[in-house]
Write a structure and sequence with these properties.
alpha/beta, homodimer, 20 strands, 6-stranded antiparallel beta sheet, about 35% helix, VC0802-like, about 425 residues, 2 domains, Carbamate kinase
């Protein structure tokens, strides 16, 4: 829904922008962005701006929380309110800076922006957006600066949306306001075919489909997968672009109006922080896998790739990956769970996931073969394989990330624009 | 009202404590105070703890606000939300520290504590306290840590209560919860007969009446007068004591159960930051004074002592004092107002107010005479005089504060306990 201009019947398009922590790291950067926002508003659009906490301020708050908590982990409810202050600081400063530049502006906390969530402190999910106040402020010609990353639960407690939560705030507000576009400004200038630090010929994509971006985001690209999912479900186009460099970014949108000629493989996603846990010689009967994974899920361990080997004499091996941060806890828990039902539990750190992603893959054969051949030729051993309709993932030793990324980028000719 | 212990019919006394910014300046101090709070809770009382922002954090936020605002003063609404984050940080950290020490605790923002205010951003007044949630948390055995200095207006915007606002939060919560005592912990260890830095024989008072403390607080003592007023109206005893030193503080309470034998003069209050504006030869007819002071009030200038000299040939001189911070603005505005109705407007900085305060003065004569004689003997010239029922104030040159304070302290024998 476009916002009212005050003149009956006349409406303006709505743009939601999001600026990350490095973009608003100090007063000078905030003032610079405020000018850009005002320039954009002058083109006749209604603006909602979502901001993250300034620079390292979130880490400083976490340090304080750990300092006062001693051996106890800080309560998630308290940590949420504490961390939410970082975004409140940025949102009020940005509203002041925009006002100083000459455009009326108002800051809104997550609560004031009507963002209601479930009660999962630390990684709450948005349940509802009550956007009345936002609409009222927009209709009065104000730029609304919303504190990202935060919402309010039905207990009237502040919640946070987890890592990358401000992206989710921005896209969710875009959905609620039926915005014309959601723009994520960051310290990278778009989505690349793979990590340009590893592969010098990596190419910036002008556009990418929601599904492909979702796979890329889940697999290491610096965007919150939930925000992409939201954009996809409600068809809000998302532009990823550089905050300070004036160069074209990457537009994430529905596949039906892709202008670039499609190729089968769009990019190579890299996830560096992978660990593997193998449960050996577990009894191969219904329900056994559940006995392992239900307690892990209840303990909040996010299990990623799961591979079960073919059964041998009624016994089977189950291997799964978890992120490096969860590794110690997951390993201890798995050993405890499997102490009587498996022969052995072993763990490995220092792995990585290399994935090729592309909507086109679902219609053509041979992509897996090409991927395995390229990795083999580069001397990279594959430890695990998993696939989705538009993705093939290999788990490899993290030491070989560079060779693997270059080999795959070359094998699928990602340095060349689609022809 | 005492809080429920969970056992029907059994209740515990309620204590409200407040810790100022220097008491919670770093993680270590917060942990130290958390232990003291837990020890106190173990004695079987229900505890509400009000905290200020850590150390200089408020000043740092104000610097940021000025940096992004350029020549414009930051909008008061935005500044209020910005500054309120300082107390949110302390309240969540304190709740974590108390929990780590072993007692269940919960932080509450001003809003969550039900503190509703009017819409005067920057110096809002508490309109109502909806203490349901506080009572619920106390009944569940939690220590409630409330972010001081802040509330919520009917617009659902965060407001702040002005300088010393956390004192007001504490006493107002004490009133709402019918607390047994409100305790203000700070970097001084009580209320003295006068400033001990000026008068070495200054003596700490064991107790003081609300009225006397209100005069002392209005006249330079480091407490928020509004908090004293609230305590007086609802008869909540207020203890002022040192955070880290374990020495007796001063109890502010109703006069009827004063244990110390009363003397006429309780203390000498000193206000250092006084300026004087004199309007000469203004027409002496009804309404003239209003023409001067109504515009000053509308401009937010707080006028203090006002003296009007006897009329001479239909003309009169009006002199009034303002705080040093308001001086330039007040002088310019008064010149503008009086350009056609007075002969001349003159201003003086560098003055101070010396006041003797004591409930006993209302029943006895001669205190003014003793005061004037003591100042005269000390060579201190009196520029203006004003009195209330329990106070006599002289405006003097700030250079003579030391001599004046010692002279008055001696003249009224304040170095000796009441006999």
């Amino acid at each position: 829904m476009a916002s009212n201009t005050g003149n009956p019947g006349e409406t303006r398009p709505i743009i939601v922008q999001k600026y990350g922590g490095s973009s608003v790291a100090d007063a000078e950067k905030i003032s610079t962005i405020a000018r850009k926002i005002c320039d954009r508003a002058e083109t006749g659009v209604s603006m909602v701006v979502v901001v993250s906490a300034m620079g390292d301020s979130t880490d400083e708050l976490i340090d304080l929380a750990n300092a006062v908590s001693g051996d106890h982990p800080p309560a998630a409810r308290e940590l949420d309110t504490l961390l939410s202050t970082g975004e409140l600081v940025t949102s009020t400063l940005m509203a002041m800076a925009i006002t100083a530049t000459g455009h009326p502006a108002v800051s809104l906390s997550g609560q004031q922006a009507g963002i209601r969530t479930d009660k999962t402190h630390g990684s709450a999910r948005i349940a509802d957006i009550r956007a009345d106040r936002l609409r009222r402020e927009l209709d009065q010609g104000r730029i609304c600066v919303v504190a990202g990353f935060q919402g309010l639960s039905d207990n009237d407690d502040v919640t946070t949306l987890g890592r990358g939560g401000s992206d989710t705030t921005a896209v969710a507000l875009g959905v609620a306001l039926k915005a014309d576009q959601c723009e994520i400004y960051t310290d990278v200038d778009g989505i690349y075919t793979t990590d340009p630090r590893l592969v010098p010929t990596a190419r910036k994509l002008a556009e990418i489909g929601y599904d492909e971006m979702l796979e890329m985001a889940s697999l290491g690209a610096k965007m919150n997968p939930r925000s992409i999912e939201l954009g996809a479900v409600y068809d809000v186009p998302i532009l990823v672009a550089s905050t300070f460099e004036d160069v074209p970014g990457t537009l994430i949108h529905g596949g039906d109006y892709m202008m670039e000629v499609r190729r089968a493989v769009t990019g190579v996603a890299i996830d560096r922080d992978v660990s593997k846990i193998t449960v050996r010689a577990v009894e191969d009967r219904p329900g056994v896998v559940g006995q392992i994974f239900v307690p892990l899920a209840e303990a909040g361990v996010s299990v990623d790739v799961i591979v079960q080997n073919a059964s041998l004499e009624g016994l089977t091996d189950v291997t799964f990956t978890v992120s490096g941060g969860d590794f110690e806890r997951a390993l201890a828990l798995t050993k405890e769970i499997c102490s009587e039902m498996a022969q052995d539990v072993a763990g490995n750190r220092g792995l990585a996931k290399m994935s090729i992603v592309g909507t086109g893959m679902q219609n053509g054969p041979g992509y897996a073969a090409t991927m395995f051949a390229a990795l083999s030729k580069a001397g990279v051993n594959i430890e695990m394989i998993t696939t989705s309709e538009i993705r093939i993932t290999c788990v490899i030793d993290a030491e070989h990330i560079g060779e693997a990324a270059n080999a795959l980028h070359n094998a699928f000719e990602l340095d060349q624009a689609g022809d």
